[in-house]
């Protein structure tokens, strides 16, 4: 499974990569119905991952490397194994214990139908019926995700008080902030009424039903949490970060979560979802900066998305010319194009002002594993949808640390005899970290180089960004500060730089030499120039 001690062992690797923060997915006590996002005890380390003492060692060691530690906090839902949910089941209808969750009587004859028409993000109804303590069919409870994840009722005073204690518990242990899971959730529309678009949550996997998401009261929670973390900062001068996972599709609604006194950041998911296209990227960047002038949190990969290499791999056009696929150069390898595009998109992202979040393994250029046996799939999204949605296991396969297949390519210690929790494909040997470490043009070393430049080039420390409009189709050009211009070619043919004397190329995602005034296909190049911004 991996554990906290394994993270401690890889901190030198992370420091060498050049990151300055580490976001840990949930490691709390959990039955593991949704990879730890079903939390049974928010203040305990699951024994599979270690202990509180091991966590303290991780924080101290990370801080020694100059790496801050951010924890995943899950406030929208609990686990069916949480003591408060067990107490709710035992206490009966109308009890204060049930009031901590959303329990309701069913509709229809004998209450056999769910209380409303809401659907789960993971598929199926958002309600599950329980048996009462006397064994009779009873009330239903709300779960906007898996049935093993009952939603908290944030109008009950016990719930916000619980999470303030949880945050304080971890802040007292030295953590530097929190990534907030499902930040648009928590509060529901009073009365939990039906909505005509309730089925869209299940159909799209997005929080579309306005009665279930993005209620105005949720912003009271973030103002409260912001005051809490700022109290810690005032006490010792050390900043703490709140970053929200806000899955809403309206950029203006997402921007509301970073109003003064609320969350510091929200992830810019449109960048991750963008097609590899210059105009699309230009629009995404312009919109993000307009709505988040104090800083954007860019992301191209995470544990919920197919990996960028796979997303950017083109589907070749069909011989019948129906336009279902993309016209590729003769003899082109779609997989290599996918890797080239992922590298170019990463370099573009790392040239932007704001924060950048990297997902484990993207620095190795890992693709999704699309052929995992059905018998090993863990994701409740796959199982609740009856297999119609592929789930997220393909992007969660353990990293290949060593070329040798022994011990799961170095993921597990030598004494391990059991299989890894998800199997690695044999082809990953060529992508192993130890191999890439010694290859100058590897994706790993590309990330190291770009992160080092972000730290050392003054222009990249500014908030200044100029998007150029005088570029040929398929080419995106932007200038940071006054002396750094980057070009991203999203086409399959080389494009000359539109500005004369672009400067000295200091980073290129293309693995082989090329003319300094030409941008190869599916490539990003950074230029440093002595003059002012190219006209």
From TrEMBL:
| A Gene Ontology molecular function term of the record | alpha-1,4-glucosidase activity
Q: Which UniProt keywords apply?
A: Glycosidase, Hydrolase
Q: Is the keyword Hydrolase in the record? A: yes
Q: Classify the source by domain of life.
A: Bacteria
Cite the Gene3D superfamilies for this sequence: Glycosidases, Oligo-1,6-glucosidase, Domain 2
Q: What is its EC number?
A: 3.2.1.20
Q: Where is this region: Disordered?
A: 189-213, 307-332
Q: Does the keyword Phosphoprotein apply?
A: no
Among InterPro entries, the record links this protein to: GH (IPR017853), GH13_cat_dom (IPR006047), O16G_dom_2 (IPR045857)
Q: Where is the Glycosyl hydrolase family 13 catalytic domain?
A: 1-396
The similarity comment for this entry is: Belongs to the glycosyl hydrolase 13 family.
Q: What is this protein called?
A: Alpha-glucosidase
Lineage here is: Bacteria, Bacillati, Actinomycetota, Actinomycetes, Propionibacteriales
